[in-house]
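To: structure desk
From: M.T.
Subject: fold request, one chain
Message: Could you run this one when you get a chance? Sequence is below, nothing fancy, just the single chain.
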Amino acid sequence: MFNNSSQIDASHSTFSEVHRDQYYNTRSTVQGDQTINTIIHGNQILQDSHSNLIEALQKASAPSAAHDSAQRYPAPKCIEGTRVELLARITSWADEKDERPICWLSGRPGSGKSAVSQTIAEKYAAQKRLAASFFFSRRDLERRTTQHVAATLATQLLAFLPSIRPAVIAALEDDYMIPMKVLREQVEKLLVQPLSTATETPDAPVFIIVDALDECDDESLVLELVTLLALLPRKISLPLRLMITSRAEPWLQAQFQQPHISPFTLPLEIHAFSAEADIRSFLRHALDDAYDQHIQIMEHLPRPWPSQDELERIVTKAGGLFIFALTVAKFVGDRMHNPVERLQAILEDTAAVSTGSAYFDLDSLYRDAISVFPDPDVARLVLGVVYCMAIPLSVSGLHELLKRPDVDARMIVPALNSVLLASEDGKQPIQFYHASFRDFLINPQRSQKYAINPDAYHRLMAQLCFENMSNSLRRDMCHIGYPATANKEVLDLVERRGSAYDEALCYACRFWSRHLAQLPGDGVANEGLFSALQRFTTTALLYWMEALSIFGELESAAVMLREGISWLKTLHEPPKDALALLEDAERFVVFYMDPISQCALHVYLTAMAWVPANSVVYKTFKHQSLDSPKLHPERRGEWPTLRRAINLNSPIYSVVFSPNGLLIATAGMNQGVQLWNVITGGNVASLGDRSSTSRLVRFSPSGTFLAAAFEDGTVAVWDPKVGREHLKHEGCHTERITCLEFSNNNTLLASGSRDRAIQVWSMETAHPLYRLATHEGPVTSLAFSSDSLRLVSGSEDNLIIIWDMTSGKIVRGLMGHRKPVNCVAISQDGSTLASGSEDKSIKIWDSNTGKCTLTFSKGHRAGVRTVHFFDDDKHLVTTCGEVVISWNLGSRNTSDILWSADQLLKKSLRRAPAWQTKVIGWSMPKPVLRYILQQTYAESPPQHILTAYAMKTSSFVFTYQTFLFDGSLPTHTESMPFDASGPFMAVALSSDGNWTATGDALGSLLIHDLTMVQGRGSWDELETAIKAQPFRTVEQLVPSPLGTRFLVDSLLQWHLIDEKCHVIKKLDMGMLGSMRDDDDIRFKFSADGSIFICVIASLLRSDKSTVRVFDSVTGEQRTQFTGLRKVHSFTASNDGAYIACGHGSGQVDILAVASGKRTTVVPPTEPNDVHINALAFSDDARELVGGSKSGVARVWDRASGECKTTFGESTSMVTSLAFANVPAGGARIAIGREDGSFCVWLPASSSAFQVIHLQDPVVPHSESIASSSQDEAATEKVKTSMILTQFSEDRSKLFARREDGTIFSWAMTVPLSCDVAASEGAVRDELPQAGYDSNASTTSTPQFHLLSQSDPAEAVDNHFHTAFRVRKDGWLVKGDRRVIWLPPHARPRGKDTLYGYESGLVVLHVGTSSLLIFKCVDE
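Reply: Done. Structure tokens follow.
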């Protein structure tokens, strides 16, 4: 409400109804001592809540990775008295101050590394020295990736070091998405920076333990994590010991030997510390326990059992692997079997397997442990499912997922307890006792008949997931009830979720796609799996989306659907129906992610209300739609191309796709470099300083590097996969960088600048290679040859230079252009260069000789902006201000205009519904068309065509003014623009031509799916669509006060329609009426809605107007008044009986509708500065108030024309008036002025009360724009004129609307006392007034209490009837209750866009896009 305001003075003020989850840092200026009884909606809570940020961090962590997590219980640890030497060495390292800060403990699988880590963790936790720990595990999805490491460690560190809390909160406040960013940014923002602020002073070094690095899925991320963690002890002052364990993999050994890590690391190899004695001691104690537990069958055997010889044989078999000893202990000690028989099986080792394997004895032991279950097929089934589980399930969860009468997991898992870890009550997750057992299972030579095929079990798991979801999912399983209730508003949602979704169902919802993604692309579809998939997608798809919203994981839905689509496409004959449904569902969930993620049930309300009628999702699930508002006109038939709209709040200067098309990088004002996921629109990473302005961003051809040029002349390069900075060269240029290019082999990066220099870097060494400073003007363009041996540069000095990249020397200079060179390009074979210039010409050069072989100088109307080779270098495409041209390089004279602005205008005019406009569009000469274009965009800064080309296809996209077009070379671009939300500052196209992204001056990043452009239709098809749906484009909307009739200007034709968009009457505005400006034709309804008035300016005489009066019910004309002076303002009496017209000379005419009589009640006066700007009738139409340009307001008697009273002199003209008769209060007149001031005049008491004082104009951030010619941000002042004032029907409230769209409301009360002192919050002016009715002299002094002030960025009910408004986030709300979410293409823009009615009817005018009318459904 008080956005972008300052200097709050809210003395004696009260704030009420502060609603939830909204955190804008907002302020407001409230003058005087007005009482503010304000409802603060959406994002407007003034106090911050840090707990939500910490909760978000905890949610992003992996609690199961901590050393003391319940999921790891009982965690393996060293038996007391074992590993004494190794533990002593680690303790010495931990306690000695002079030791290296990092210890890397490595060893073979099963050698006990994790047990050592657990033992050390428990020891130092007891001493309160363990700061944090993370235990990786392949068994746990959250612990097999680096994504959760930083958040997990940070969460634990917050408890251990409370002083770092402010720094962590500050980082999350700056960017709450940090836990989802690249690893480097997470570690820097959540660990390094906070730990640098720690104020605790521990007596001894504190511990961080990271165990089992080798169990992380991604080797490259593991290496990055090692690098980042190794920096911790050096970047912070806190004494720290970092212990890391892993297998001794060669790639990890190489990393720890890096020069920036090795000097700080103590390497320990576990096999260097003999484990035989420890294993012998452990086995003796474990087997003694087995003896005691089986005393009834063991008492006849002498102790010690087994014999020393037998014990030594087992120790020898262990080969130093503790896992062997542990498995022996579990196998022999099983209470359900005879320990003597089991020990004998181990000792005899009758398995027919080669003894050459290092794990021969362990393998035999594993096979013996499995063989205790009599059915090998069932055992293999359970082990295969456990092996493939994305996260461990409990025994009960596994049983529910399998749902097989012949397989009872509750019986099988306990029988396999030698190799499976599970709690006796079956509630803890099932896990393999050791990672070595996983390796054993998938190796047929080792596991033999128990070997599993992971592909087969992933296929089975996917099928089980689909079956479980289809059978169990239903709508509103958490009993939320009211669809608009936000998930976070359900206080016990966690408990409801736990009751509604069991463990197996949660697993199925979250991980079905993971199993599909693991299947081989062999083109073969399993019938059972495919059948289960079809059933799920046609019955439970929306229920699944609801479930993910309840889980808080809806963003993963898009990724999961994409994995499902990818799997279907691997089949030899992909099922078209299933594929179409999944592709449509992906669009569905991404497009409606915002409302569904916030309100789970809006998957059936908002999403189903807006989803196109022809979409597969709608056709399949329309029966599941809730009673959503009925939209008029009918919903769109097809999906819009817009996939995701992201608001960065500041200008975007550069956009680029990664080569694989999965990421988008943006550069802009105060943004650093941002990386975005193309599929979900989620922010992947923030690179560089967020406070710095980046100008250009580029991916290398391989995607290995990402480079950015900053406004201060700095160039930086990162590895986009991990976010690691590869190089940073500050001040390499002294002026703005204009171009930035990678070589095709990814080894070079070149930048050009307005400082006339070119800088070249080697990506292999990350150091500058050459500085090329030969140009005498700013460098404008760069291009590398395909072999990366040549670099071509263009400059404002009219010169083109070819550089040798092996030496940095000039090969040759090319002269021929008469003006600056704007662009250069090199053919694929490197033999031909092309250049475009401000001289409107294109030159083709032989790169070997430097000779100009062709010059194209015709066709361009301005300087050439881009050149691009295509069709195997046989053609060239160029762009200038208004034309896209294709050139045939085999001919000097062959060119083809692919697109031009005048063609666009001619086509649009020819398809207009008015016949006279079609004739004009058909016959209008090109110079006239260009003139119309110039006039149309006269107020806009000049815009160049921006172009982007697909590397792998012939597709390209380009912008013109506010439009975005697509095309395919070398054909004509006949299609309509697929977006009109410009002007744009940057455009990019993915390499496959399927995606485009744009950035604009307001900070909007728009991602479009170009596969939806195909089949969008031609101009002829648009004409057909217009006939079928006439309100696809609406220029103006005039609503009636009652909501039963609306006047709509659609494609140069005015219509009278009803609330269901049925056309009542097409209005004939004359032969050239469709070509008039908005100011030449104005409409208004009477307050009772009985008539509407049309004022038309004369085309032949500019000083004359005609007033036409129509019946609102039928649309038929009642009467007409011609020959009037030019009408500047007009109004109708409440009952529609009279019309008042104000003229520039001060003349006021009264038109009697019934009789057709015209009466001049106020004659013209001189000078002309008294012209009437605003008029209003009193409630009974006996009096009329008028406001003039000079700022004077006068009240006249309607019948006699007598001026009854005059109010003040002002330098600011009157822009709006409202006239009300208040019971027991007399007449009150509200006056709004051009300068933004607003007062209430009481004629009877000679008083006026200044409700709003004149204020200095405010410059809101949302008004910020950027000039495309200078690429600099500029601002516009707020439009302060009060353009509309109105009293409520009961006269208790007063409303006003400012020109910028801000709406004010005040409560107007009359105190019991009739004291004439100035009211609280208003300044009283007493003026001598004569001739006014003295019968109203008992008027009491009113008081005005500000109720609300809307945010100009929000659309509010312009009728002031209801509490409807559209928030910035797209929600249409009524008061504080969500009604429906509006997709970007359906959101009102600017003022006069939202009208609400008490009946629940809502009318939206969406820019020039469309008209939407619907009735909201009550709770």
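Reply (cont.): The longest strand covers residues 1117-1125. Let me know if you need anything else for the meeting.
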